[in-house]
Write a structure and sequence with these properties.
Blueprint lengths: L3 E6 L2 E7 L6 H15 L4 H4 L8 E7 L2 E12 L2 E9 L8 H15 L4 E7 L3 H6 L3 E9 L2 E9 L4
Parallel strand pairs: 5-6
Antiparallel strand pairs: 1-2, 2-3, 3-4, 4-5, 6-8, 7-8
Length: 157
């Protein structure tokens, strides 16, 4: 299933879609390397954890340039985990991360998955709160960065 949203976004075209793999994975990897490894100092072995092959990936293009990504991993038939949300620094502050998350949530809901979990970086948990995620448990360290587990329940009919 491919979801494609095309928007006139700040006088630019924003496309968010399910990535075609393996063709688009190099662009996804480049975004994640830039954001997580270069900016945040995450160890490449932690960032590229062997779970990409079992995940569904979204990619965002702003005027045909790959600028953002996330992955969805289905933990079981009722739970999905959204991971590795990243937007290049040159494209931040425009709501692209939120749009990527909204698309990921639509995809998950369309599969009748009941709940979504994330490990949100403490510094950006407000983004997830705006999407009705609720904090769960204590703050913890992951890859040297403070995180909090958050959960969103879909009330399916």
């Amino acid at each position: 299933m491919t979801v494609e949203i095309i928007t006139n976004y700040a006088n630019m075209i924003l496309i968010i879609k399910v990535a075609d793999l393996p063709e688009e994975f190099p662009a996804i990897a480049a975004i994640r390397k830039s954001v997580f490894q270069e900016e945040q100092g995450v160890n490449p072995a932690l960032e590229f954890d062997g779970k990409d092959e079992i995940s569904q990936h979204l990619i965002a293009y702003l005027d045909e340039k790959a600028v953002g990504t996330t992955r969805i991993r289905y933990l079981d038939e009722k739970t999905a985990k959204i991971e590795r949300l990243a937007v290049l620094s040159t494209a931040r502050g425009q709501g692209i991360g939120k749009k990527i998350m909204e698309n990921a949530l639509q995809i998950i809901a369309s599969k009748n998955v009941r709940e979504v979990v994330i490990h949100a970086q403490e510094s950006v948990k407000v983004l997830y709160q705006k999407l009705n995620f609720v904090e769960e448990g204590e703050i913890f360290e992951e890859a040297g960065i403070l995180h909090v587990k958050m959960r969103k329940i879909f009330y399916l009919e």
